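Appendix B. Chain record.
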Amino acid sequence: MTLPLVRFKLMRPGAKLPTRGTDGSGAFDFFAPERITLQVNEKKLIPSGVAHDITGNLWVTMRAPINEFSFPFRLQGILFDRSGLGSKKGIRISFASLIDNDYRGEILLSIENLGTEIMIWEPGDRLCQIAYVMTYAGDGVETHNLTETSRGVGGFGSTGR
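Structure tokens predicted for this chain:
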């Protein structure tokens, strides 16, 4: 069985292929393709210099006692802060960023500086991370009845501290 590959295309001079920091890393690091300055309390779109190509659907088969069901999934990219920049310097991705499976443009990073110092990245410095996760790729249908769960309609804070 061959697993899907994530392919990266360099989109500008100075861009560097995303890499994993260690064998156990759950995400690829993005690197600054050029010198970038982010003032205190500033938020801006920063070019990653990279586009991705993730092709095909994954089919997950589940076996029940009588039937077998297959469900379609796709890999999608999700951007995450680098933990050290977030915890030590207040640098973070400014909103949840799902990079769709079929997007082929340069990935832009909305990064904000909530710290107390100007942040400067030199070419090749790590900016943030992208992890690839499986998401359901099938259709949704309307229903008039939902299955019951122990949580029910309990919302914010309903499961405790």
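Further analysis of this model is presented in Appendix C.
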